[in-house]
Write a structure and sequence with these properties.
By secondary structure, this protein is mainly α. The protein contains six helices and two strands; from the N terminus they run αβαβαααα. It comes from Roseovarius indicus.
Amino acid sequence: ATLRSAGKCGTTRLSQILDWMGADFEGVLAFDEAHAMQNAAGSEQGRGVKPSQQGLAGLRLQLAAPRARVFYISATGATSVHNLAYAARLGLWGQDPEYPFPSREGFVSAMEAGGVAAMEVVARDLKTLGLYTARALSFDGVEYDVLEHALTSAQIEIYDAYAASFRTIHHNLEAALTATGVNDASGETNASAARASAKSRFESTKQRFFNHLLMGMKAPSIIRA
């Protein structure tokens, strides 16, 4: 976040980094959690296509240091092909003949037309060229035992009591929405977004609650083990 922000005197963190690096910087630029720059070219979803300041700052840093060695690190590099705009140094697009696509737009169009198969080819070629690697931890030699916790009668009673309470809330949720004006007297909604948000909050709260409850009930067996 500091990369895109400016100080009280108007000097940005990006300009400070570039001044420190110098004009002929040839070192490594390592972008950890690089997916934070994934909206560098804007999004075609929502209300507009305005790019993120984070993504733009990352692109400016790369463009200002053309001789730097750029290193992208991410567990989720991109959720869609559009979000690869920040990865200009992968050599996927450019004006020179050695680039496979003349522009980012051309790359995106080709990938969208080719689907998953096209992206698999890109990943294969990048890996062959030494531009992409994906590491995974091996479970070789790992041993484990299954520990089963038998619920006591008291725990079952507690669980049933909480389940009954959430059932009561569930059965009266529509009435609560009507009382707060989200639904009208006939049960039709006056605000679909508010209704969906209320139900989503209820379900997510219920899920988290029972997850914590069950983890707490299993704790005695884990401690004894």
